[in-house]
Amino acid sequence: MRIDIISCQPGLLEGFFAHSIMKRAAENGSAEVVIHDLRDYGLGKNRQIDDYAFGGGAGMVMMIEPLSKIIRNLTAERQYDEIIYMTPDGERLNQKAVNTLSLRTNLMIICGHYKGIDERVRQLFVTREISIGDYVLSGGEIAAAALADAVIRLIPGVLNDETSALTDSFQDNLLAPPVYTRPAVFEDKAVPEVLLSGNEKLINEWRLAKSVERTEERRPDLLQ
Ligand code: 6GU
Predict the structure, then answer these.
(1) Nearest atom within ligand 1 for CA of residue 139
(2) CB neighbours (10 Å) of residue 44?
(3) Residues 6 and 116 in one domain
(4) What is the pLDDT of residues 41-93, one digit of tens each?
(5) What is the CATH number of the domain that holds 16?
(6) How wide is the angle at C-alpha 15 spanned by C-alphas 159 and 91, nearest 5°?
(7) 54 in the same domain as 85
(8) Structural domain count, the chain
(9) What is the tens place of the pLDDT at every residue in 156-192?
(10) Which of 114, 122, 137, 149 to mutate to test the pocket of ligand 1 (most atoms within 8 A of CB)?
(11) Residue 161, domain member (yes or no)
(12) Does the beta carbon of 178 sit less than 6 angstroms from any atom of ligand 1?
């Protein structure tokens, strides 16, 4: 998979993708993340990328020319499965959408800033608009990093223990069960006995029961 991310603050993203699982995904060829600095496509000697909103009001709007230039450069080189704009008014991201996106080959992600991007960019180029929750971030970079992380970790070979993504919370619409490690007893707190039993069938039954219990308590909406 290749993910191109367009940002006017590429530094926010570079550190993220240089670490841990994201770094491993890049090194083993599972996912290539290419970060593009929108300023390189800015207008004039100031490399302008934003301007006042027509009609007035507070906040700048990201201009269509720099964005269309980079989007057209990229789409001339390869076919994109989705051109995603990260925006709080997009569809709310969930594991099902992440699973689907993890099967794609080329994704482009546009990070917005200020009051957003010129509406015509959305009309002309964007195929999908995604939000990561009902709160507002100062820019789309953290949202893009969250999306890319969630997608890339599902690509086979990215996680060490490939089965571990299958037992994540939200796969099967259930939250994950509690987990424990040594010591078996800490102060007056003991690990549930069944986990020490070595009986895989009983352990799996216990984990499923705890998953259901936890989901009923915390996220009954997932069980609908
Ligand atoms: Cl995708 N962008 C911004 N700026 N804020 C958000 C968001 C995206 N998702 C939730 N809040």
Answers:
(1) 4
(2) 6
(3) yes
(4) 999 999 999 999 999 999 999 999 999 999 999 999 999 999 999 999 999 99
(5) 3.40.1280.10
(6) 70
(7) yes
(8) 2
(9) 988 887 678 888 888 889 999 999 999 999 999 999 9
(10) 137
(11) no
(12) no
